[in-house]
Amino acid sequence: MGAEVIKVEAPRDGDDARQYAVPFLQQGQGEDSDLSAYFSSCNRNKYSIAVDFKTREGQCVIRRLLQNSDVLIENFKVGGLAKYGLGFEQLRDDFPELIYCSITGFGQTGPYCKRLLSESLSTGPAYDLLIQGMGGSMSLTGEPDGAPMRTGLPLFDLTAGLHGVIGILAALHNKHATGLGQHVDISMLDVAVALLANQGMNYLATRKRQERVGNHHPNVVPYQVMPAQDGYFILTASNDDQFQRFCKVAGRLDLMQNETFKTMEARVVHREAVTEVLNSITEQRTKSWWLEQLEKESVGCAAIYHLDEVFADPHVQSRGMEIQMTPTGSSEPVSLIASPMKFSRTQVDYRLPPPHVGEHTEQVLLNAGMAPATIDELHELGAIDIGANKIPRASPSERLPHLEAYVPCGYSHLSASLPFFQTLPASILTLFHVPP
């Protein structure tokens, strides 16, 4: 979306997601790289810098970068960054235009944000599965007589991030009008409750517990997985007209004369009986037959793909949802999932493959106007890590000029007064932490 994103990681090991095995991306000749597929799924187009902000010098590096950053995003526990002098309240006076986005399990307020409530509920790490349980989605997922079921994706890890982006964009819009930043507080549990959507409103309207209905829809029948001769397909007749067209395809228009099938309300009330009859009809034909015939009548239907079928689908391919990028140090490109956003005037720019730990530390600090000698000193002190990624030094005339400016931590020679990335709409600094 046009922003430059700098991911701040711990020196050496970096983001814990780097270690989530397996698989790892290949770096050529069938050898694994240090980039896990899990990490790579959400870390393209990001610079990686390795900074130990537990140290005073590391904190100064962060403050230097914040001078020219529009947004800081962090996922520490409440108060986790304050002990390093990097909490919102500690930064707001020095950086009044900064938008500070915190993504946590339970938010910055409320009884769960800081204290231990019981032996089973604490303010420790909030993993996606915990939020799926506490947010109610697991009680709605799975077969009626089965165990609560998680979704196959880290749903609230992803949607909390999306809501964070929405909040940041709103705060940026307000900043353009007022000149002031603010704290954007995203709670994964809040997101889970908000995404209950129609299921949540079903409860609020009736105050009755919503039970699991498997692959069925609580308000629409049929809207479910159907058996065929050779497997399963999806049928979504979301109104009475579509259901009548389904009956036409099935050669069972007589069902529309039956009070049990005639209306959506009746089909929902008599869900089990309706499903039993419909199953007996659809299992007489193949998946391909049903999909072809139902599409002709504009009845909602779809195949159920495995992932190999998803990426082989000609429509998915035509939309460019698989891209190729070559990680630094690799001799061969790797496949990555593309952005789903398509713009009429501008194109998504895939600039950076998933980075190695601290791959861009020196580049970022040099571009920020930091003196090479200072970078070397910080590296020797252990405040930053440039690892094997030390880059050839440009001559002083080719670098951004090193202009000193005050940094409120007594380490003034870390700073410069030039914009960090001058041509882009936003510069975002992310401080991420996944506790063990």
UniProtKB/TrEMBL annotation:
It comes from the Eukaryota. Pfam families: CoA_transf_3. InterPro entries: CoA-transferase_III_domain (IPR050483), CoA-Trfase_fam_III (IPR003673), CoA-Trfase_III_dom3_sf (IPR044855), CoA-Trfase_III_dom_1_sf (IPR023606). GO terms for molecular function: CoA-transferase activity. Keywords: Transferase. Belongs to the CoA-transferase III family. PANTHER family: SUCCINATE--HYDROXYMETHYLGLUTARATE COA-TRANSFERASE (PTHR48207). This is Succinate--hydroxymethylglutarate CoA-transferase. The lineage of its organism: Eukaryota, Sar, Alveolata, Dinophyceae, Suessiales.
